[in-house]
Amino acid sequence: MSLKTVLILLGLSLATIFALVCVLLTRERTPRTCQHLPLEQEDIEDGQSLVFADLTAEEMSQVVRYLQGHLGVPLVDASRAKPSDNCIASVDLQVPAKAEVLRFLDARGARPLREALAVLYFGNQPEPNITEYVVGPLPTPAYHRDVTVHKYGGKVPYHRRPVTGREYMDINALIQQELKKAPRFLTACCESDGTNLVILTTAPRGFKSGDRVTWFVLFHNVAGTGYYLSPVGLEVLVDHGDLHVSRWQLRQVFYNGRYFASTRDLEQEFVAGALEVVRLKQPPAESVLGSMKPRHPPGSPGPLQFEPQGPRYSVRNNRITFQGWSIAFGMNPNTGPRLFDIRYRGERIVYELSLQEALALYGSNCPGGMSTRYLDGSFGIGRFAYELIRGLDCPYTATYVDRHYLAETDTPKTNQNSLCIFEHDSALPLRRHFSDSQSFYYGGLRKNTLVIRTISTLINYDYIWDFMFHGSGAVEVRVHATGYISSSFFHGRGTDYGNRVGPHTLGTMHLHHIHYKVDLDVDGQLNSLETQDMEYEFVKDPWSTQNTIERPYLRRERLEKEDEAAFPLNVPMPRYLSFVSSNLNKWEHPRSYRIQIISFAGKHLPTNSSMERSISWGRYQLAVTRRKEEEPTSTSIYNQNDPWTPTVTFADFINNETITNQDLVAWITVGFLHIPHAEDIPNTVTVGNGVGFFLRPYNYFNEDPSVDSSDSVYFSSEQDVGACGANPLACLSSAATCVPHLPPFHFGGFLNL
Fold first, then answer.
1. I want to staple 185 with a disulfide (CB 3.0 to 4.6 A). Which of 8, 223, 270, 460 is the partner?
2. Active-site residue 461, yes or no?
3. What is the percent of the chain with per-residue pLDDT over 90, rounded to a whole number?
4. Catalytic residue among 341, 376, 521, 523
5. How many Å apart are CA 109 and CA 37, to the nearest integer?
């Protein structure tokens, strides 16, 4: 071999080695850019947030076993219990008193005892009643105490209890039995023998305390679609107040604008030819009104959100941390999502932020629709928060959390993946500026937000509950409504109460009003309430005294009493309203957090209504009261079935006490009027149907805290904007190679129904 050949081969070998080294180095760098970043350390001592943690399934079971062995009365599983039985209706966390919790969190005091709140229905007693027990300590209960009288000022009457699944089954059996008395009518009106009809409850149940008389609306039941849009025009009034199911009765029948004493009378009118019947055919599944089945094959996939280096938030037990935020989260089976001990940069901003109630109030010219005022807490806002759909309800790569509950059964149930947590890129700058004069530069920050979300399906409606935490130190709370509208059979002057959305379907007008509790602790527990707004003053021009100018000025006011701080619904309120601390920021302004409400609420029920006091929280878009341990919630699950003598009346919270330098709570109502229209078929869309509020820092800091964000972008005309070191946006092309391995899609939400 010649020297020339050896040199050529040697050169090729060196080139090959160099190329391999370059490939290996490139391969080594790519994983490094995709490696998960170490998560920030929690600013709360590990485990402290467990004082707010929902009960585990094992804790619930321990409470059930304790009660079964220590009450001295027979207890029937609520899933089988008749009204004349005793049963455990629900078990949930008994949240400790705030003073105890703060001593533990802030002053190294003893950890509060962990306790449960158990609700029992005692139907098998001389005086049937609802009793609430606090049971503890967990995980091994050794005591129970009756807290009913202490909480509500007296015993809770038995008729106020929510309707159980077993009770609905017995009602349905009675209705089916009564429908058999009108066979020819059912064949003519509905192509039915009654078995393909489904009932929908209304509420409340009657006109006075003690009533348990409910209108049920009948619909064609078509598998795989929402029956709520297929009313057949038939509604029945059932009296189910007696402890003995055999004594329940069908009191009245409504069909197509007429009332009858019974289904037998209805049948007789039909046979005699005295009844006008609208003949409906059983709708086929492929063309039924409201079908959600896709009409076209899938197209190309849309944008996918992912974290190139893994989540930038941490979830440990019931606490989430994210870029200075720290939040303890949970779920009440009745009232839904609840957050505690919300801190930003180590300082508590909110002690409690919780959903209280969701009201849906309807109008119609049919009895079921016109009498409906759903208080969804009594049905179970948290209980019916089912598994979320990965990639649609929440981003595919979100963190999904299971929630446990015990209601209407002695066995805990689990709603898997029913709460999700994710960082959301809103594709909007949080702040930005492009400088085109003097010096040329760009500075900005993406609006990335931590989102905690759960979705409740409450009969026909789906409510999307969002709690969002921004880099500016702001908290945003938002609810969207979607799902099916509720409908009535279209007859007579139906369009006085909504719009026709199908051949015989009236989309009935209704309002959604949502109530929240916000226990703000701004730079400490003791706060005052300050309003600010603008006025104009007419002054002579200082430089031209023959002329005047209209000069806006700032009007500040400290509100001193609760009555001053109760702002009626749909009445203009000050544009700036803040919880203020006695401490000042660097610029000598009180450190404050502003409440900013975004709402399009309908009209509140007139105050002379016999049931208005049960929803008197709806009188106010905002009411600020002194915090009291004996006023933990604005309503009660017992208000639904006895709104005429409410168990909890929010209006009584407002009694003109001083609110200067006190521990205060903001009670916020948001909502919207919904007049259904053709575009609500098949479903109401979320666009335009979202309301909520913000908690925004107002002189709380010395500057916008987001200036410390590592996501900030700045470059000038003198820099190489394509250099990754100078401009983080130039690094995104390499980050895009870090597409994560997505887990296979799975859904088990149908298994727990």
1. 270
2. yes
3. 81
4. 376
5. 35
Tell me if the bond preceding 590 is cis, omega within 30° of 0.
no
**Digit-coded pLDDT (tens) for 528-548:** 999 999 999 999 988 888 899
Nearest CA-CA partner of 30 in 735, 753, 526, 529: 735
Q: 3-state DSSP call for residue 479?
A: strand
Question: How many angstroms separate the Cα of 167 from the Cα of each of 14, 100, 163, 170?
Answer: 84, 40, 6, 5
Phi-psi region of 391 (alpha: psi -120 to 50; beta: other; left: phi over 0): left
484-522: pLDDT as tens digits: 999 999 999 999 999 999 999 999 999 999 999 999 999
502's tokens: 């199908």
* CA end-to-end span of the chain: 82
Report how far residue 206's alpha carbon sits from residue 432's, in angstroms, rounded to the nearest whole number: 58
Structure tokens at 267: 């049948």
Separation in Å, CA 505 to CA 221, 489, 498, 508: 15, 5, 10, 9
Annotated catalytic residue, options 66, 344, 362, 461: 461
- At 715 the pLDDT is 87
How would you class 147 by CB atoms within 10 Å of its CB: exposed for 0-12, middle for 13-18, buried for 19 or more?
A: middle
CA angle 619, 515, 156 (to 5 degrees): 85
Is position 376 annotated as part of the catalytic site? Answer: yes
Task: Please state, in angstroms and rounded to a whole number, the distance separating the CA atoms of residues 29 and 731.
Answer: 13
DSSP 256: T
- In the numeric block, which tokens belong to residue 737? 């190679």
Token pair 């004069």 in the structure block, residue: 437
Structural domains of the chain, ranges and CATH numbers in brackets: 48-157 (3.10.450.40), 165-272 (3.10.450.40), 313-429+449-523+567-575+583-698 (2.70.98.20)
> What phi, psi does 251 have (nearest 5°)?
-90, -35
